[in-house]
Input
Amino acid sequence: MKQLNAILEGVGSVVQLLVRSLSYAGTLPRQWGRFVEQCYMIGYTTLPIVAILSFFIGTVLALEAGYSMQDFGAKEYIGSLVGLSMARELGPMMTSVLLAGRVGSAIAAELASMTVYQEIDALTTMNIPAAKILVLPRLAAVLVMMPVLIIISNIVGWFGGSVVARYVSYVGISPEAYFAALRHFTKFKDVMNGMEKAEIFGFVVVLVCCDIGLNTRGGPREIGAAVTRAVVVSLILILVLDYFVTKILI
Amino acid sequence: MSNDVEVSESSSCSKTRNPFTGVEANAVGVKVDHVSKSYGDAEVLHDVSFDVKPGEIFVLMGPSGSGKSVLLRQIAGLELPTKGKVLVDGQDPSLEETREKVRVALVFQAGALFNSLSVYDNLALYPREHRSGDEKAIDQKVMHALKILSVEDAAQKFPSELSGGMKKRVSIARALVMEPQLLLYDEPTSELDPVMSATISEIIATLKNEYSVTSLVVTHDRALALTIANRVGILMDGKLITLGTPGDLQKSTDPRIVDFLNPKIDIQHPRFKKLENKDTS
Output
């Protein structure tokens, strides 16, 4: 019962923060600097790790698919498997997981630290809402940067698959055949569905991490606890939401 | 716009003159009405009542853990009382509408400066967010406030590069940029050397004399309280045990007040031993 109350309180707090943040949406043009800074933090600094991870997800997918499909003489379809898996599921999912670990933890740590060291109280006495200058620019930035990250993740993952398809002996299909199958089976709608998922996951991750950071109470130890909680809650939400969003999109 | 410091005609006037624009606004009063505050079963404040008049320096003293800072946070609108009410200029300070009408600035004990911003940006944040002038006007305001507090050389530094005394002064400068009608100080001289404590006390008194802002200072610095306060209240165990002028306090024969203001160090009969004996009996 206590845990259920805590979950409901958490949901209520997140919804309140969302409503408060959106009520300041009109101020976003005046917060251009903060928005660009957050785009840099969310997009640019996450890009290298997203690219590395996506490349190796693509290679592993091609390896596994090549190994399994060689028995059926269906190696030419590896491109379709890698293309669809990356676009519809692994690209958005793994990018969101990385976002939770890399950006979500940083957001929770920064806001928790600001709360513990009374910087948020100082903002309140100045009548500058934290939802306006700390949350809104991050939410806007994640909405803009997630599609960019997903496009790059997909392209790099597909390319990783093509490298394995070409150079691993038991797979051994040409890049032309690989990309022909990929293009044939991976539709624009699949890529768009993946982006929609990523937008939802990214938005939820940033919102939840902001909320946990701003509700931190206590001393420095609680900053660490807030970061852990933010990442764990984000990961759980990504997995749970993935099921429901996939069901809706299929 | 004048860069010169305007001095009000009388230190007891109830108008606070904006140091930057010269525009006068009413200094506001505070009413603490039968306030109690509990955290779970622990009662931190019990039925505390007092008024702070517009334009005065009111000092709230008391031992550590007596509830001074909690009361100050309630006056700043950061916490709500469990019972009773706190009013600033007759309005609930926790409401956003009140914050829009009445400018209340709080100088935090640890400064609460924004660590990711330079000193200059810390001060410029308020006028920028509230769009009170263009960048040139904001620059004048910020540099003027830094000059008043003698920390203009620190403008481009980050809070982590400042000493404790400088952080306090920057924190006061940041509050000053808000052109406050009520200025709250939470332990402004804690962790400072005696000379810096005296400097901060002088700054608080000067600001009051020059701008007639209402000042409410929470401290256990006896020298600060008895030197600059118009009135002093002493909180002990969550209760307001006395309220009067510094002269009244010094004449008091209440042993708790005498012991708090002039504690004697008795090595033969230490206080903690007396407390231990009381507990065991």
